Amino acid sequence: MKKIIAPSILSADFSRLGEEVDSVLKAGADWVHFDVMDNHYVPNLTIGPMVCKSLRSYGITDFIDVHLMVKPVDPLIRMFADAGADLISFHPEATDDLDKSVALVKDLGCKVGFAVNPSEDLTHAKNYIQDLDLALLMSVNPGFGGQKFIETVLPKISEMRECIDQCKKEVRLEVDGGINPQNIKTVCDAGADTFVLGSAIFNTDDYANTITDLRNNIG
Predict the structure, then answer these.
(1) Which of 30, 65, 133, 176 is catalytic?
(2) Is 131 tagged catalytic?
(3) Does 96 qualify as catalytic in the annotation?
(4) Which tens digits make up the pLDDT trace of 175-188?
(5) Which of 35, 38, 65, 193 is catalytic?
């Protein structure tokens, strides 16, 4: 399975977002990652579906990976699907009807993922593994970018990797939070195949060199 680099636009320059996203994709990134926060389920307020729609209108045709850190989730699932999202991940605890929310994402034509915070266990992700296209393990506490990677998440990544391998279904294992060129190999070796990076890419002067370094470190 190809290793995926998914820059989080949370760290991009929003005064020229279309250009930033276009540049990072041309520099070798695979996906565009959205961190959607509602200042309710998690602290901080970030971006909504209009940003996704704007990027599509700008001409971005690449894969858009949306992580909903919101409650309730169903209204925003609908809005992001309509705005052009390809994959929508949400936190199982943020919905009152997990089966309904999973079905909604699929019915709207998107891939579906579950997100797991550092302090949470993998019960929901494991129980629903046959329904998922992606498991997203947070390696920082959600709310703000630029945080340090939480090392205790590494065993959880390996545990999720084992579950995915046993289910014999193609499910991506994404990790988000504090990843950089120095630790990405460790995250990869633990079992991740999809890597979300924000400031580690957008705060550099040369996106192509940064993404090349990342790829060289994960093979």
Answers:
(1) 176
(2) no
(3) no
(4) 999 999 999 999 99
(5) 35
